[in-house]
Amino acid sequence: MLATSSFRVLNSFRRTLLSRSLQTSVAARNIPSPASFPAPPPPVHENPSLKPEPQQPLQQQPDANPYPSLDNAATTNGPTTHFGFRTVPEEAKESLVKQVFGAVAPSYDLMNDVMSAGVHRLWKDHYIRTLAPGPDTTLLDVAGGTGDIAFRFLDYVKSQHGSMGGAKVTVVDINPAMLEVGKKRAVQLGHSDPERLSFMEGNAENLSQIADASVDAYTIAFGIRNCTHVDRVLAEAYRVLKPGGRLAVLEFSSVNNPLLAPLYEFYSFNVIPAMGDLVAGDRASYAYLVESIRKFPTQQAFRDMIVDAGFKVEGAGWEDLTFGVAAIHSGFKI
Ligand SMILES: C[S@@+](CC[C@H](N)C(=O)[O-])C[C@H]1O[C@@H](n2cnc3c(N)ncnc32)[C@H](O)[C@@H]1O
Which domain of life does the UniProt lineage start with (predicted)? Predict the structure, then answer.
């Protein structure tokens, strides 16, 4: 019953999103989105990392604590951060995020298709087209998980340039379970040449294995909102890029359409956790994923963080996808 009604909601969403996403991606290019979702967030300070905790709408209280390691969180005296809608000690967040992606790894790709009705594929295709890598581009795909961006990068280079030239991509992720799925998919998809594609366990906040000024492009898709210190992630991106190199961030963002906003709100907080339960047997991890989207800075605030990290941005600095459900932010190391 729930599956049937969820499927209907999904299908109608899919039709709306598919028909509007390409329109939006062109029409909204470089146009700032003033509105935010679901309720206007509190004022964003100059430094978004200092912004106050947003007030939670009443219906969005966290579920009962599924993470035992959070039980002592309230007693900490040290710095805190958010993990979804919960406040946790900063040092706890990384392992909590690891628990989430360790749990969802086996069903991650299936759930992406189910939750977005396949729209994430269009966003990722567009993301790589926007990056427009050349035949010799070296890419670092951070928080690369099961390899979606890396595979698209290699496929794009081959189809656009006829041959692979010197193109190569390194996928870095903090979670070995996600990387293991990625390695298996690489073999299945014919991307098993280690000279072209490699997988590396590492933290986006400290890419000590990657040399300064060593890559042409840096991508991070749906990963940065899970990191504890977004400013450190951006600083590392800046360090590893060559002069002239490009940062491209694909992330969920703030919906700017007043008609879509309440539907998206309902879908996010009611349908997605239920789907997580049904499809992956894991409601809590998918509730976290939705909550973490709400805690991520708005398009403008994130663009300001990119500029603060030293990047040059063109125009508004981002492109909204599907009314701001997701956005691509770009910056250049000049
Ligand atoms: C939503 S998945 C995105 C995977 C992939 N980029 C995609 O678009 O399908 C988020 C990924 O970020 C990774 N991640 C979270 N925190 C990280 C960190 N600090 N450093 C590196 N990876 C991290 C998770 O392990 C997970 O694989």
Answer: Eukaryota
